[in-house]
Sequence to fold (249 residues):
Amino acid sequence: MSALIEATALSRSFGGLTAVDAVSLDLQLGEVHAVIGTNGAGKSTLVNLLSGELPATSGRIRFGDDDITGWSQPRRAHAGIGRSYQRTTIFDSFSVHENCRLSAQAVLQRPWQVWQSAQRCAASRALAMQALQATGLGDSAERIAGTLSHGEKRQLEIAMCLATRPRVLLLDEPLAGMGAEETERMLALLQSLKAGHAILLVEHDMDAVFRIADRITVMVNGAVIACDVPQRIRAHPLVVTAYLGEAQA
Fold:
């Protein structure tokens, strides 16, 4: 398969610190590609580079047939690269549906219709509802977002991402802080989204990673030390030593 996104020798330095060091990886349609590593390994910086929130110091990023290395974050989002964040970014005082509608509005802008309230845009409202249904929040559309459980808020963040009609989902620790039942719901959601998307998953829950991932990239000190299917990653000597050693003891 051809990759939707392919990063080649991607690096990012902050002064004398190299946070991401010549990382190459690709994201395939229909695949969950997990990125794991200890705190400070460069995982979130990598996501920021792929989403366009940080410029690369060196290296290239290709999205489909386009070289997007110099593209801004909004341009990448409009092209079909969506992301979620470690911390929830929802509007607590708005309804669940309004949170999603605002995301949909970002990709369905109609500046020529200045006489019409954006809240009445049928297309963005329908797209928002479609995203909520896909994430299991259809029945909660009119609830105030701040009243949702932690797990539901994480679902809403993914719904907001889906409302932008992405082909690629960059998910930064979507399972953080979840209990067992919420984790199961999120894993089922990711499995359901896999067919129509290329998913990059940054996650610390190793049990969940090895259950959901098709491929796993392991980072240490900003560099990739291994990339393979879960079964081989679990037994990879460098991974066992650098990251999973304690769990394997």
